[in-house]
């Protein structure tokens, strides 16, 4: 049996865009700088009403995180070796460090290590920088960008919510639903695509996403779905529908994997 495989256009250790990780770090530094600036202009107390001394301590901790992020970006730009992650009381530190020990010196730098490992390592290292502080250990450096993207997704969110609400009382959709191209099948396929492409706006993958790009990516409707379908590497939606429509009194779980833009459906 001859097996045909798809050859990746880039090796696993050669990221297509070497500005991706520096951009992520730059955005975090910008977010922290804005927060520190606000603290500096405040009335001398933390949001919780703590003392001016603690406010000052938080500012200094923030500046230290910025210095560490800048050093990380410096090492990244010079393709230096990935360093062991310091214990911070969190999980998976040993897991990352044990893997680093297994690298042989030819695949242990930022741009020679496997891309996915280096990507995950970066986020774990960022988490450590925050976790080891007193006043920033619960901070999410990506919150503001998440919030902004959520707000800019409101058009798609409202459309889908209204669509689902309208479908709730549509008992007529069950008529002849097992037939090819039934109304229920068409609706199912559209909803699956909407779920898939809504998930594609994961900010960790689209660090330079512009507002108009987001709107286009999350566009809804038959024409938009048909246009987006050509970007799906493997599309088994029809097979999923053939399986689901034969189920009786079954539960359907839909799993979104926002790391690789996969959508899995299990019926049982």
From TrEMBL:
Domain of life of the native organism: Eukaryota
Identification of the protein by name: Uncharacterized protein
Origin organism lineage: Eukaryota, Fungi, Dikarya, Basidiomycota, Agaricomycotina
